[in-house]
Amino acid sequence: xxxxxxxxxxxxxxxxxxxxxxxxxxxxxxxxxxxxxxxxxxxxxxxxxxxxxxxxxxxxxxxxxxxxxxxxxxxxxxxxxxxxxxxxxxxxxxxxxxxxxxxxxxxxxxxxxxxxxxxxxxxxxxxxxxxxxxxxxxxxxxxxxxxxxxxxxxxxxxxxxxxxxxxxxxxxxxxxxxxxxxxxx
Length: 185
What we know:
This protein is an alpha+beta fold and 185 residues long. Helices cover 28% and strands 17% of the residues.
């Protein structure tokens, strides 16, 4: 049985995510993160996608992506394949790194997009890595829909040197998770 094709048209927004197989660490050090972000930056420079928010944690990544062409699957396949090959070659290993094909959910409203940016920002807090999102270095929100009123973009986008954190402090209030959606048939 074949896979259901992703719904990806020009100008569509997506919540893209993946995690390591068996919750394995997939970003062991800064070099791993830099390489992954450099592959994303290459796709952005090519004009295939825009990355408006991201969070890279040791076992997973979360992205808010605006697809310029209907090529999200090809773009993410290229980014992840390059990353896995680089990771495996550097450690003299083989086999899968991620638990499967990346997951993506369509983001169909401005309100959902705002809540999603807040969710992506709060991922390290929910994982109890930091008390406030501004203290986590591998997080960026470059969206025009900031997660908190009055907040500014914290980074110019995914880049190998995109580790600048935010100066603003968060209020520490609990955040809503994005609404769960049923998979499309």
